[in-house]
Design a protein that fits this description.
Largest sheet: 21 strands, mixed
Number of strands: 27
Mean pLDDT: 72
Shape: globular
Helix content: 10-25%
Number of helices: 12
Radius of gyration: 33 Å
Structural class: alpha+beta
Distance between the termini: 81 Å
Low-confidence stretches: 26-46, 48-134, 599-680
């Protein structure tokens, strides 16, 4: 069976064509008309289902963000009792009562277009992605869902964990790793690194953070911080011999009152996790969600979708036959929706929540009154007033949506604002695979346009991902563009990957290699080789890693914490002395190669210098003395290949050197080594 309107093959006993929305006559099975036959492959691509692609993970930037699928929300199109909605006339939009304003010139018009378009397109996207459609709306809704699902499936084959589930459970652990090999051609920090671990277990009322400096993969020390219930603690196995020191936030007022001899502060105290619960209950997010859902449903009911026929259009440079739909959202409906949004936010609810938090913290009544009088009413009116102004200026929201083979392939929105005409276009697909091509065009009539286009192997055949994204615009009549290109290859066998990213030719070039380990509840990305270049020069070389997964309780006994606010001054001095002694022992035990640091501190070392052509070049130094006086000294430079030997005179090492290096043939260089090195 074939559709009598678009000629697409049909299955089962559908009452409506899933491709164009036409009501079907169940008593006939007409043959497809020649004019409705699918176009030749060279003109119209037939998108295969995006099944199990091998896409690019985090290191390879996707061409565009993937919207969440909404397939489950979209009901089947019921048979209407009256004529199909597509046959109903579309009411004329009343002219927008725009304020009289002078015509915008130059880039101002472009900025206005971007701002107004963003506001309205966000509203339109919220509508279309909801999935509450009937009749012609059902066809449009299914196409949007199918398109969103295609982009959502780009990462389906990686086996990435369900991060949303971890967040919903409020139990999650993360790790960030960084190692430096070279920075801006300087290998002084070769082997220096850091590892940062964090965890959150809100049901168990525990959050923790651990920072570990590294040198040649050896752990120097670990500083541990955490909040276990009301106990806020800090400690280090190496620096505090495993002892933890902290404060009890529930008794914070009592401890402070004892220190400052002020009984009025005794009632102050709090549990951070209880404050979070108070916020949830007071803000009543579930009620807010219900209010927003009801507002969206009202907006959906007001949306008008009309099928306008079949056309041949160009999508990302390819000819595609598609069905055109006109979507209309009236200005009145948009304003009603904005009113509902404003009501759901309810500034009084925010103020009441803030007051409840302060009360739970035990603020004295007089102090609470003073604080709340300063806070006043949280004003959100201006935000919604801006939205209303945009709707008043733009009037009814009317845009064309083109659907081909069940996918949204083209969206066009034209509008006027402040006597200037704007056009926004979104083009999706057009090539062999739907997700491979995308472009966005913002045109300001008589002023210019900005075009963002992305093409490549985005579906990830054989684990290879490529992309070329171009941002182009016209300035003073000349076309200018910036090109972002990337390539990524993933080996499913050993989970290794490699790739590169290039921006603006040689302006920025990034190459990387690493491994990707995933399961249902965790992911670990290890960029073991990461190099960043700019105009051919190395800016950074090292490694980077990131892991995320289910919460892992830290190896810390936070039940035994020494409260520092209850300690005497002598006890605090003893802790400080112990900390200093352990730090000295740590440096000695590590046996670090500090020759470069010693040379800098003594002023007898050498530093890398740019290649020079004229040995008569000089570096001049001005020595700011450690005391209030100033000692002037010369730093004469002699060049030996790429090394510059610096000799200091006067009291340069007693203070710090502000170095300004001039090369008559090679430009200007400034090296900043920091005051702690005796050189700046």
């Amino acid at each position: 069976m074939f559709c009598v309107n678009c000629g697409q093959p049909l299955e089962g006993n559908s009452k409506f064509c899933p491709y164009c929305g036409t009501k079907l006559d169940q008593t006939q099975t007409p043959e497809p008309q020649p004019v409705a036959q699918p176009a030749a492959p060279a003109e119209q691509p037939v998108y295969a289902p995006q099944a199990a692609p091998a896409p690019a993970p985090v290191p390879a930037p996707a061409p565009a963000p993937a919207p969440a699928p909404v397939v489950s929300n979209i009901p089947e199109a019921p048979a209407p009792a009256a004529a199909p909605y597509a046959a109903q006339p579309i009411p004329e939009a009343p002219p927008a009562q725009a304020p009289q304003a002078p015509k915008k010139k130059g880039k101002a018009g472009l900025l206005i277009g971007i701002g107004a378009a963003v506001i309205v397109v966000i509203l339109a996207a919220a509508l279309l992605l909801s999935g509450v459609f009937t009749g012609a709306r059902a066809t449009l809704g299914k196409a949007i869902s199918k398109s969103a699902e295609a982009y959502g499936n780009v990462n389906a084959d990686l086996g990435t964990p369900d991060i949303s589930a971890l967040i919903a459970d409020e139990q999650i652990s993360e790790e960030l790793r960084l190692t430096v090999n070279e920075v801006a051609g300087d290998s002084t920090f070769d082997g220096v690194g850091v590892r940062i671990n964090s965890g959150m277990d809100l049901p168990g009322q525990h959050m923790n953070l651990a920072i570990t400096p590294l040198y040649d993969d050896v752990e120097i020390a670990t500083v541990q911080l955490g909040l276990n219930g009301t106990i806020l603690y800090v400690g280090s196995p190496e620096l505090t011999d495993g002892e933890l020191y902290g404060v009890d936030t529930a008794k914070l007022g009592e401890d402070i009152a004892m220190l400052v001899d002020d009984d009025s502060l005794e009632t102050i105290g709090f549990n951070f996790y209880d404050l979070m619960e108070i916020t949830k209950e007071s803000m009543d997010y579930e009620a807010m969600a219900e209010e927003l859902k009801a507002a969206e449903e009202e907006l959906f009911k007001s949306m008008e979708v009309t099928k306008e026929g079949r056309e041949e259009i160009k999508v990302n440079g390819n000819k595609v036959k598609a069905t055109k739909y006109l979507v209309v959202i009236t200005a009145d409906a948009l304003e009603d929706y904005i009113d509902a949004l404003e009501a759901s936010v309810d500034p009084d609810r925010m103020t009441d929540t803030l007051e409840a938090i302060y009360e739970s913290m035990g603020l004295p009544e007089d102090l609470l009154d003073e604080v709340m009088s300063e806070v006043g009413t949280i004003d959100t009116d201006y935000i919604f007033d801006e939205l209303r102004d945009a709707v008043d200026e733009l009037g009814d929201l009317e845009f064309d949506v083109y659907i081909s083979n069940g996918y949204v392939v083209f969206v066009e929105y034209e509008f006027d604002a402040y006597d200037t005409e704007y056009v926004i276009e979104l083009q999706l697909g057009g090539g062999k695979h739907y997700v491979d091509d995308l472009s966005i065009v913002l045109e300001v009539k008589d002023e210019g346009e900005i075009v963002l286009s992305s093409s490549g192997n985005h579906h990830g055949d054989d684990g290879v991902f490529t992309d070329k994204t171009t941002v182009s615009y016209k300035e003073d009549g000349a076309k200018k563009e910036t090109v972002f290109s990337s390539e990524f290859e993933l080996s499913k066998k050993d989970k290794s990957f490699e790739g590169e990213i290039e921006v603006g030719g040689e302006a920025v070039f990034v190459s990387y290699e690493g491994t990707l380990e995933t399961d249902k509840s965790s992911m670990d990305i290890d960029l073991s080789k990461l190099k960043v270049k700019s105009w051919g020069e190395v800016v950074f070389e090292g490694s980077l890693g990131y892991a995320i997964g289910a919460y892992e309780k830290p190896d810390v006994d936070s039940s035994d914490v020494t409260m520092i606010l209850s300690m005497s001054e002598d006890d605090l001095m003893e802790i400080a002395t112990e900390l200093y002694d352990n730090l000295l022992v740590l440096v000695e035990d590590l046996d670090l190669d500090l020759d470069a640091l010693d040379e800098l501190l003594s002023g007898s070392g050498s530093v890398d210098a740019p290649a020079v052509e004229d040995s008569s070049d000089y570096w001049y130094g001005y020595d700011c003395g450690y005391d209030d006086g100033y000692d002037e000294g010369w730093a004469e430079t002699e060049y030996d290949d790429s090394a510059a030997f610096i000799y200091y005179e006067g009291d340069a090492i007693d203070g710090y050197l502000d170095g300004y290096y001039y090369g008559y043939d090679d430009g200007y260089w400034g090296y900043d080594y920091g005051e702690s090195y005796g050189l700046q």
